[in-house]
Amino acid sequence: MVSRWSWLISLLGRQLWFRAALISLLAILAPLVAILAAPIIPPGLADKLGADSVSQILNILASSMLAVTTFSLTTMVSAYSAATTSVTPRATKLMIEDTTSQNVLAAFLGSFLFSLAGIITLAMNLQGERGRLVLFVFTLIVVLIIVVTLVRWIDYVVRLGRVNETTEKVEMAIEDALRAWLQRPNLGGTPLPAGSERRHGHVYPVLIPAVGYVRHIDAPALAAWAKAHDTTISLAAMPGTLVDPTRPVAYLEKRQEEEELGAIRFAFSLGKERSFDQDPRFGFSVLAEISSRALSPGINDPGTAIDVISRAARLLIHWDVAEDRAEPEHPSLHVPALTAEELLDDVFTPIARDGAGLVEVQIRLQKAFAVLARQGGGRCREAAVHHSQMALRRAEHALSFEPDLERVRTAAAAVTA
């Protein structure tokens, strides 16, 4: 499980400005490297290879890359705005963290700064003829990077901000979160049934004097603290939980001094918004938001809702058939289990509610429940049957055309067959 500092570093790496700043720094250093590398270049080689043309190439890059960078940034902002309007604002964060967009922007901005730095060093005549050759080689490499980046950007920009592309990113974020959970179920701790945080003698609460969503929990740090203090910790707030100064985030088996609780509080990272990293339920909720917006009267796009149902079922199938680890990695850490009922409720209840009057959506829902009920893992069967019955009851209230209702009933009967 990722520690707090590793998680914070990964968040830094996802920031839009970070890659641009890093590539820009390297681009500025490249002309300086040409100055240092000049003594190892054989005399006269620069004239043979036509390195004198580097000044013209740099001028072309400087004049064009600024416009390309501005255009790319404008395109990205427009795509984010479109996704916020047509998909859901919660998915925009994934688009901003998209590595392809960040690499493109960083490459264009870095090329612009490289050309500026090269022009300045040439104007100051700091490199000489041999240093000019090194700069010429760097310039050719930059041109090659620009060409490759432009080809990728042309293919990618036509899909940026589209509903299917954004939904795909949400699905990938959920898949990553589920995979991390399956690799270390219950954050590596001992499974604890939901709502039983105070059982087994865990009666001493730990409070955090702040309000926010739990975005990350440093399970190894909590386990190490529990081992050092010869006690056990029972988590009461999982990633995605909104906590406040009156809601415990954990319960301890033994009473501890107040100054000893700082390490426990530090293991909980709070924020204004939920995070996809350790919170699969948030991803499923975002999928449900995409479907609900598509089913709104103003948009009326049941095809997107059907696509969301298929994606959710695919993710839940992988989670259902995965094998549980035999032994917990952190026995002293008791963690509430992630249940199928919670996951299905997060994604399918809003779809069943908003699509109650659409026969095609109800049939696809029942087919998804039937697939989940038949899985060999058995985690989802009871929840799938329950949600199938609830969706059928919603359809019976919303559908007035009897043949449509019969089709839904037939599909619902297959869930328990």
Written overview of the protein:
There is one protein chain. The chain has 417 residues and is an alpha/beta fold. The chain has 3 domains: 14-161, no CATH class; 169-176 and 277-326 and 338-413; 183-271, Aldehyde Oxidoreductase, domain 3 (Alpha-Beta Complex), CATH 3.90.1170. Helices cover 63% and strands 8% of the residues. A 5-stranded mixed β-sheet has the order 1-8-4-6-2. It is flat. The two termini are 40 Å apart.
Rounded Rg: 28 Å
CA-based shape: flat
Structural domain tally:
3
Report the sheet-strand fraction. Answer: 5-15%
Helix vs. strand class: alpha/beta
Q: How many separate helices?
A: 16
Question: Got a strand count?
Answer: 8
Give the fraction of residues assigned to helices. 55-70%
Low-confidence stretches: none
* Distance between the ends: 40 Å
Run of helices and strands: HHHHHHHHEEEHEEEHEHHEHHHH
Largest sheet: 5 strands, mixed
Major β-sheet strand ordering: 1-8-4-6-2
Please, what is the average pLDDT? 85
Summarize, please:
The protein has helices spanning 4-14, 16-37, 45-48, 54-86, 89-96, 99-123, 128-157, 163-183, 219-228, 262-266, 280-294, 302-321, 340-354, 359-373, 381-398, 402-413; strands at 189-192, 204-206, 212-217, 233-235, 242-243, 250-252, 268-271, 330-336. The protein is α/β, with parallel strands linked by helices. The strands form two sheets. It has a five-stranded mixed β-sheet. A three-stranded antiparallel β-sheet has the order 5-3-7.
What's the SSE blueprint?
Elements: H1 4-14, H2 16-37, H3 45-48, H4 54-86, H5 89-96, H6 99-123, H7 128-157, H8 163-183, E1 189-192, E2 204-206, E3 212-217, H9 219-228, E4 233-235, E5 242-243, E6 250-252, H10 262-266, E7 268-271, H11 280-294, H12 302-321, E8 330-336, H13 340-354, H14 359-373, H15 381-398, H16 402-413
Parallel strand pairs: 1-8, 4-8
Antiparallel strand pairs: 2-6, 3-5, 3-7, 4-6
